[in-house]
Amino acid sequence: MTPALLLRLEMQVLLDAYIAAIDDDRLEEWPGFFTEDALYEIIPKENEDAGLPAPLMRCDNAAMMRDRVASLRHANIYEAPTYRHILSGLVVQDSADGVALRCNYVVVNTSQEGSSAIYQAGIYRSVAVRVGDGWRFRSKRVIYDTARVQTLLAYPI
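The chain above was modelled as a monomer; its predicted structure follows.
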C-alpha cells in the first residue's frame, strides 16, 4: 500500500469514527477526536465566502467541547435529534500543520414522529495531526451551504 493511500485510509477511519460518535449519540466521545487546543466552528457558507468571522458555534479548545456536551446532557431542554451523516468527496493533502482534509457532508435528521429531512449540507475543512494514540483534529470548520439553520443547532455536526 502506498503512503498516500494509507494516509487516506487513516483519515477515512478518523472521519467514520467521528461521525459514528455523533450519529450514535455518544457525544461524550466527541471532544476526544480533537487535540486539547483544537478549534471547532460551524459557519454559514455566506459568511465564509464574505470573509466574515461569525460562526454559529465556536469552541476554542476541547474543554469548551466537553462543556458543550455537559450542557446538552444536563442543562438544555430540546428534542434530541437523530442524525445520520453521509460523507463524500474526501480530499487529503499533507500540509505543514498536519494533514488537510476536505469532505462534503449531508446530515439527515429524523424527528421523534418519524419524518426524515435533510437538516444540513456542506463541507468539512479540517486539519488532523498524529498524536501518541492515533489521529486527532487540530481544527474543524463545518461550513454549511444555506444561509440559515432550519431548526435548533445544539449538537455538533
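The longest helix spans residues 3-23.
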